[in-house]
Amino acid sequence: MSDPSDLPDSTAETDAPQSPRGRGGRVGSVIAVLLIVAIGGSALFVSGFALGRLAGSTPGTSVDNQDLFQPFWDAYDDIVQNYVGPADPHLLVEGAIGGLFTALNDPFSQYLTEEQYTQTLSGLSGEFTGVGVQIATQDDSGASCDTVSDTCHLVIVHVVRNSPAQKIGILDNDQIVAIDNAATTGMTVDDVAGKLQGPKGTTVSITVDRAGTTQDFSVTRDVIQREDVTTQVLANGKVGYLKLAAFSSGSSSDFHDLLDQLVNQDKVQGLILDLRDDPGGYVDAAQKIASEFVGDKPLYYQQTATGQPDPQQPIPGGVATDPTIPIVVLVNGGTASASEIVSAAIQGDGRGELIGSKTYGKGTIQEFKELSGAGGYRLSVYKWLTPDLTWIHGVGLFPNIEVTPPDNQPAGQDAVLDKGLQVVLDQLANPAATFPPPVTPEPTTIPAPSASPVAVTDQTGGLQLSLAVPIVLG
Question: What is the pLDDT of residues 388-401, one digit of tens each?
Fold first, then answer.
């Protein structure tokens, strides 16, 4: 699950400035402001315990609420004193707090125990410690297999940019045959991953087979930024394609650098931004990435429970704000949260058009806060609205051009991308052409989004996020 410069001044504190490759720390008790989607209605780790009065004392209860909380404390006191089974007061308190959030009936507000809270925050930055390779087991035909053997090879399918592995010369398609001089035969991918991971600054010896020649590498582990942005040059150099997998702490900086390369070095004339199945990420990343394309209009509006919509302005210095550079955004039902903020900014400000299918529909922002000795929680504290002040919660964004991939689409083909490429090339050939308006039927009621259809393990690490899928812990 969540969502600039940073959020506007309010009762919630904002994040400290973000470095190109990560963010950390926390200000006061506010750990993060996230736009998180799809923490299902049966939210994890919550229960409906009620508390009771603590032996005639109701600490923290205001005078006005003494009668309201009397049953709360009475039940707690009765459990602690008279329950015949084991009753851990700490667990009772955690259960009671969880019950508060369950009662909100908001799938995006949730209590987290101390362990769960720590795990969640440690998974928000997009960073991990290791050597920076993605591995898989493949047989001679390239098909997946389970355990390394003479016929099942441990292949490096990708070396992360700027990682220790890349800097020392390890390449895609190298086969790992030994780690710390121990053969990988009999190991699984998980076994090998455990050996490659380790504390920053420690070293690991990796022996690879490269086209029949064995080479040894000593790699020093470091903090690796997850590679959320990939690019290609299409249509004989005319169109730049950017795929954004998530809005992690380092994605906006990476996105800026790669977009700058496409526009100012590769000299592409048009752009395709692929946000399909992007669950979102940091809010400031969404604002920065949207600012790469929109430079002179509000990107979106943010609204508290009692306040007025507050326009969130672009950050100067966007690479592709020139309106002569056509852009399309590829979207689908997995495009959510921060991805919807960016999509709405590009579509709503007339900078480009959306192609694909209706987006997920997540229009609230959550704030993370720590509870001393009792974990923490995320709570919906803002709405975000499109540039025309529409709240898309439970509705989603509608594409300008709807394209549904065929169920039997052959591997290697992409009907949505093909249409996006066609539209960009048409715009280049006819710059005066106008975008078709999106079809946005108004429902009689706006349902709250249910759990996202895709469960994603997000391994990011600390602050403003805008996720649109469940965070799977553990």
Answer: 999 999 999 999 99
